[in-house]
Amino acid sequence: MTELTPQEWDDFLRQYPEAHVLQTAAWGALKSDFGWDAVRLRVDDIGAQILFRRLPLGFTLAYIPRGPIGAGWEKLWPQVDEICKKRRAIFLKVEPDLWQENADSPLPPAPLPGGEGPGVRADSLGVENPPPGFRLSPHEVQPPRTLLVDLLPSEEEILARMKQKTRYNIRLGIKKGIVVHPTADVDAFFHLMGLTGERAEFGVHSLEYYRRAYALFHPRGLCEILQAEYQGEPLAALMVFTRGQRAWYLYGASSNRHRNLMPTYLLQWEAMRWAKERGCAEYDLWGVPDADTDELEANFMQRSDGLWGVYRFKRGFGGELRRSAGPWDRVYRPWFYALYLRRFATQA
Q1: Within 10 Å of residue 174's Cβ, how many Cβ atoms?
Q2: How many whole angstroms separate alpha carbon 171 and alpha carbon 21?
């Protein structure tokens, strides 16, 4: 086992240009400033960045977001177990960078504590079941479902795949004089995030979190803040991340003013154009309700709770519904894990 420094980890990731942005050293550094510790392990050409969340009584929760990296993960797990036990992890949660074969497939039931998890189809590496020693988890950290917009066609073809109303709103924003441009004004971005959080009733990170994210990723060319303005007034902004041929829309916000000018639609379109110009093949809209297409389409007009509030907006951009494999849990302390499951069931 080799535990790597952040620089050594990024050097290792150069042989994997399509590794997920959540596995970069910059993401580990960001999370380390806000309650986590990042450890990066490598065994031959396989590796993983593990995040450890400190818990009471000296225990931790271990988490691998959108990893591990490379093929042949079975060689890595003994080393992961060693570091997890050393850090007194109750369990390890893995959310692999894999897609289920069919996003509309019904989900299998969550396993009981101590039981084997049912299989999950994933097409990226042919993974049909959680690895030995893992079980399917009832709780995810990242949203499991998303919409992926294909950026390989021409801009005209991408627009043609969108809903007619979305195309209309994009053109309306242009016609009404909405201007979209990159900005380094993280404070203005945070102000819009606060307004959106109050309006939509969801939590936002602190100003220091967004400042740190921008400081870590922007100099590496891995993120940009795009801002939509009307007559010099910021109306909407988003933070888009990119690595390899993928781009991710992780954070976005809008003002309560001039919403009739549809600035968020033009903003998303310009973010897609920004990603396409940088050679990205897909744009991940990052998070829709965990339901199949039929349920989404039947209920999005009536529901606004959770991610339902953004699905109505995101569906118009013509993306393909996908669901990630997992999450998988590897349990080290069964009694404490049972308490975790009980608490999750109470909150669900």
Answers
A1: 16
A2: 31
CB 276 within 8 A of CB 309: no
Euclidean distance between CA atoms 162 and 320, whole angstroms: 11
Sheet of 60-65: strand order equals: 2-4, 36-43, 46-54, 60-65, 89-95, 328-331, 135-136
Phi, psi of 26 (to 5 degrees): -65, -40
**pLDDT tens, position by position, 260-295:** 999 999 999 999 999 999 999 999 999 999 999 999
- What DSSP character marks residue 69? B
Which of 140, 142, 137 lies closest to 109 in space, CA to CA?
Answer: 137
Question: What's the pTM?
Answer: 0.90
Instruction: Quick: pLDDT tens for 214-234.
Output: 999 999 999 999 999 999 999
Structural domains of the chain in order of their starting residue, each with its CATH number? 2-137+327-347 (3.40.630.30), 145-322 (3.40.630.30)
